[in-house]
């Protein structure tokens, strides 16, 4: 905040709401709320540059406290940025205009498990791992098992339309959420209808799902649960190229074999990541892991069809160990030994489209990016990991091993690569994101992605948040109105 | 700087969120700046001369234990507690220790004590509490077992707070007292004292008297009074709480399977070692039904008093303890049993929220 007196007034009022221990202002404490997994703020930290910091970090303990804080923020025209686990990759939590970063982790209670409806009511700040442990202990699972399970919060997943590793069978978080409680930008606390499937007008539930805190702050949700599967089986194959693997995956989906997992890695990623991490002796080809879960009889039946489809597309069977290693080590990808990190520049582009467009999208993007950024030795690796009966998501990444040392030049190259990638994706019929969200990183592409339809989103934003205090600078929206 | 030797680990941890569920302090306070990742980022930036420590950052590095639960939870077991220690040592060397730490270190003084008999209980874990009732409890056990009793500072707290010079001085004082007393067997009042004598002193270059046998008090008590066993918790569901010091003595570290949310055992995948296995064996012999959660053995969350935390930030330590008690209660446990005298004393001071807390040597 520019005005120190106003800042002190606001600080005192925030302390009155949540207590001294839950208001942070010292840079040594607030710095950690300025970064997520996005490359730019991390690059800033590594190069000794301070990323944009919040003026305040506040940890409310209830929806009522959130409501009071939001009302205050409106009064002072100060941005409010919701914060969950800091595991996002899009800079969605970056306080680009300062203001209040609102950490929701104190809202971490499991309020009620309803065994009859097989649902859970839970506060939004709960860590996914803690939630899943508690549910598994009772024989249930929230089948949203994100790679970021150890750090992400439920609210973050809902706000960004997250996907988990078994989404191919169970859907994304937006398919699991039945109802949410939201604090609106004016401080009102509302609940959406008790069920998502109805004909009582438009479903406002999905207005808040994926809005990244721009339309309201999700404080509580009711979600459907599954029983922990009686059995899981995994199968690993090697396909000679992406085309054969893709056709196999498409057939599994169109024939409704209902796998929980299909992960098809292109050859560069097979060699770079899979071979190294899983200790597999694979020299070339595309690694695929397929998972089935559920009751034994159902799996037996699906397995037969799966074998036939994989055979028909020329899949070479790998060992059970090759398959289970992926499942058992699925989180190891994200530990420092294996995760992408500086000094390299990297980005996960995460694009989704129909089957019809996917092969062209993958081939074009790979060619365009590798050609245009050859001088930077850009490496393109990809896998297809979230499948639908109509299409699939391409989890494609670029890596520039030696980006410019100068931070401004590095940022310019980073954004230029993204410009190329997104333009190519959209031209090939892709939607620029399947489960990471928009955040700061993709905000500038929203208008292009949506075309005139973006006015609908803008209209909603103006109506709900006339002062634009909630997470400004994200989703294609500007700064808070002074 | 001592932290430089941990460069690759600090670099890896500075943005890594994977140990969040294990990050002891931040899970109690909810604050990101108390997370293991934050600690790593602070140290890494200083170690790489991006900036010097601010006073607040130094405070943050002392507003925690040594984050060894995170180290245990990490599939690659990056040496988190070692770089935390190294950072504190650098801070001590630079003369930038916070006042509260300074006063704790000043309180830690050599105590000129002697013991009667060849076997003595060495009680260091409660020395810092200056709590008369603790002294009486150890005295009572000494009397029951007909052994001597020495109380003093082991130097472990000073070491954990980064002052190895002080730790060495205390270690030398204590070993001299033991030697003067002609003691041949020392019975330690908990894992931290046991760790000090059996591992830390060697690290500090302090030799314990030749042929001195060091044993856990509970192990000796079980052997010495087999016919006098109390059955007050027989048949009860008990949770055995491991002090963080056991981590430093472990034979095996947790298997990578334990990070899965559906991990329900076997318990030994959470780490093995005599300090984990023997007390559980004693409890099983007593007919106690042991319950556990993933947060046990090497992943045992702190009861707040570990690694000097309660000395410098008692209210934060209490927060950790309350969280731990609630977690143990949720496991369906009717009582909490531990070898850690520090934990027992701390809980008797702050209250145990209705949990029946049992110091293992007292029921053997």
Structure explained in plain terms:
The complex is a heterodimer of chains A (482) and B (364). With 482 residues, chain A is α+β, with helices and mostly antiparallel strands. Chain A folds into four domains: 4-105, Uridine Diphospho-n-acetylenolpyruvylglucosamine Reductase, domain 2 (2-Layer Sandwich), CATH 3.30.43.10; 110-227, Uridine Diphospho-n-acetylenolpyruvylglucosamine Reductase, domain 3 (2-Layer Sandwich), CATH 3.30.465; 231-334, Alpha-Beta Plaits (2-Layer Sandwich); 345-434, GMP Synthetase, Chain A, domain 3 (2-Layer Sandwich), CATH 3.30.300.330. Chain A has 17 helices and 19 strands. Chain A has helices spanning 4-18, 27-30, 39-46, 63-76, 128-137, 154-160, 167-170, 173-176, 205-208, 242-254, 267-278, 296-312, 320-328, 355-372, 407-427, 446-450, 454-464, and strands at 23-24, 56-58, 80-83, 100-103, 110-114, 119-123, 140-141, 177-183, 189-191, 217-224, 226-227, 231-239, 261-265, 286-294, 316-317, 345-348, 351-354, 379-387, 391-400. In chain A, the strands form four sheets. In chain A, strands 12, 13, 14, 15, 16, 17, 18 and 19 form an eight-stranded antiparallel sheet that branches. A five-stranded antiparallel sheet of chain A has the order 5-6-10-8-9. In chain A, helix 1 packs antiparallel against helix 4, helix 10 runs antiparallel to helix 12 and helix 14 (355-372) runs antiparallel to helix 15. Chain B is of the alpha/beta class. Chain B folds into three domains: 2-96, no CATH class; 107-218, 3-Layer(aba) Sandwich (Rossmann fold); 226-363, Rossmann fold. Helix content of chain B is 45%, strand content 9%. Chain B is built from 16 helices and eight strands. In chain B, the strands form two sheets. Chain B has a four-stranded parallel sheet. A four-stranded parallel sheet of chain B has the order 6-5-7-8, with helices on both faces. In chain B, helix 11 (191-204) links the parallel strand 3 and strand 4. In chain B, helix 1 (7-13) packs across helix 3 (36-47), helix 3 crosses helix 6 (80-93) and helix 10 crosses helix 11. The longest helix of chain B has 18 residues, at 164-181. Chain B is globular, with a radius of gyration of 20 Å. The mean pLDDT of chain B is 95. Chains A and B meet through helix 2 and helix 5 of A and helix 1, helix 3 and helix 4 of B.
């Amino acid at each position: 905040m520019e005005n120190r007196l106003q800042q002190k007034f606001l600080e005192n009022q925030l302390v009155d709401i949540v207590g001294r221990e839950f208001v942070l202002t010292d840079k040594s404490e607030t710095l950690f709320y300025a970064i997520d997994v996005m490359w730019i703020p991390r690059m800033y930290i590594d190069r000794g540059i301070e990323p944009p910091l919040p003026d305040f970090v506040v940890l409310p303990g209830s929806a009522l406290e959130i409501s009071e804080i939001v009302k205050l923020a409106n009064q002072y025209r100060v941005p409010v940025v919701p914060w969950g686990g800091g595991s996002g990759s899009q800079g969605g939590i970056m306080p680009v205009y300062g203001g209040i970063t609102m950490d929701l982790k104190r809202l971490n209670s499991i309020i009620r498990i309803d065994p009859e409806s097989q649902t859970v009511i839970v506060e939004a700040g709960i860590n996914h791992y803690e939630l899943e442990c508690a549910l598994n202990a009772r024989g249930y699972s929230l089948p949203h098992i994100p790679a970021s399970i150890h750090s992400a919060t439920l609210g973050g997943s809902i706000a960004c339309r997250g996907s988990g590793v078994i989404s191919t069978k169970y859907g994304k978080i937006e398919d699991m959420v039945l109802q949410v409680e939201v604090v609106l930008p004016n401080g009102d606390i509302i609940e959406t209808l008790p069920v998502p499937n109805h004909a009582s007008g438009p479903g406002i539930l999905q207005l808040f799902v994926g809005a990244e805190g721009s339309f309201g702050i999700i404080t509580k949700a009711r979600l459907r649960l599954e029983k922990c599967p009686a059995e899981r089986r995994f199968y690993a194959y090697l396909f000679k190229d992406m085309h054969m693997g893709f056709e196999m995956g498409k057939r599994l989906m169109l024939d409704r074999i209902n796998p929980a997992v299909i992960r098809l890695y292109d050859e560069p990623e097979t060699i770079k990541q899979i071979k190294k991490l899983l200790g597999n002796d694979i020299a070339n080809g595309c690694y695929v892991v397929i998972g089935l879960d559920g009751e034994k009889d159902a799996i037996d039946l699906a397995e037969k069809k799966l074998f036939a489809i994989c055979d028909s597309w020329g899949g070479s069977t790998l060992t059970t160990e090759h398959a289970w290693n992926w499942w058992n080590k699925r989180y190891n990808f994200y530990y420092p030994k294996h995760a992408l990190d500086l000094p390299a520049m990297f980005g996960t582009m995460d694009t989704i489209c129909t089957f019809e467009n996917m092969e062209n999208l993958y081939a074009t993007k790979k060619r365009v990016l590798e050609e245009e950024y050859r001088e930077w030795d850009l490496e393109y690796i990809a896998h297809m990991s979230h499948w639908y009966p109509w299409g699939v998501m391409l989890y494609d990444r670029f890596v520039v091993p030696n980006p410019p040392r100068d931070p401004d030049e590095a940022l310019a190259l980073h954004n230029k690569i993204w410009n190329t990638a997104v333009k190519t994706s959209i031209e090939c019929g892709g939607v620029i994101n399947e489960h990471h969200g928009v955040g700061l990183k993709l905000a500038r592409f929203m208008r292009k992605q949506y075309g005139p339809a973006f006015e609908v989103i803008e209209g909603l934003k103006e109506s709900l948040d006339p002062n634009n205090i909630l997470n400004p600078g994200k989703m294609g929206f500007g700064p808070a109105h002074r | 700087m001592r932290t430089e030797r941990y460069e690759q680990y600090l670099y890896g941890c500075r943005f890594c969120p994977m140990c969040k569920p294990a990050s002891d302090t931040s899970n109690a306070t909810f604050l990101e700046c108390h997370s293991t990742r934050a600690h790593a980022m602070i140290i890494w930036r200083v170690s790489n001369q991006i900036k010097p420590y601010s006073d607040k950052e130094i405070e943050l590095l002392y507003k925690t234990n040594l984050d060894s639960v995170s180290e245990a939870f990490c599939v690659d077991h990056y040496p988190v507690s070692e770089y935390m220690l190294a950072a504190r040592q650098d801070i001590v060397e630079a003369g930038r220790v916070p006042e509260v730490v300074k006063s704790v270190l000043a309180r830690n003084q050599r105590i000129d004590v002697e013991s009667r008999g060849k076997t003595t209980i060495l009680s260091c874990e409660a020395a810092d509490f200056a709590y008369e009732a603790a002294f009486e409890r150890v005295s009572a056990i000494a009397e029951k077992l007909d052994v001597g009793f020495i109380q003093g500072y082991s130097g472990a707290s000073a070491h954990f707070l980064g002052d190895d010079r002080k730790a060495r001085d205390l270690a030398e004082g204590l070993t001299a007292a033991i030697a003067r007393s002609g003691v041949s067997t020392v019975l330690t009042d908990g894992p931290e004292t046991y760790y000090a004598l059996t591992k830390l002193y060697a690290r500090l270059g302090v030799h314990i008297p030749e042929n001195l046998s060091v044993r856990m008090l509970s192990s000796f008590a079980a052997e010495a009074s087999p016919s006098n066993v109390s059955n007050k918790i027989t048949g009860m569901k008990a949770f055995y709480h491991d002090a963080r010091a056991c981590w430093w003595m472990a034979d095996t570290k947790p298997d990578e399977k334990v990070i899965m949310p559906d991990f329900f055992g076997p318990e030994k995948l959470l780490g093995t070692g005599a300090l984990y296995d023997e007390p559980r064996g004693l409890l099983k012999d007593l007919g106690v039904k042991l319950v556990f959660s993933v947060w046990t053995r090497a992943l045992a969350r702190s009861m707040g008093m570990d690694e000097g935390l309660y000395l410098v930030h008692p209210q934060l330590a209490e927060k950790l303890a309350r969280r731990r008690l609630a977690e143990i209660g949720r496991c369906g446990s009717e009582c909490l049993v531990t070898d850690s005298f520090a934990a027992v004393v701390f809980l008797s001071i702050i209250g145990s929220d209705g949990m029946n807390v049992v110091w293992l040597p007292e029921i053997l």
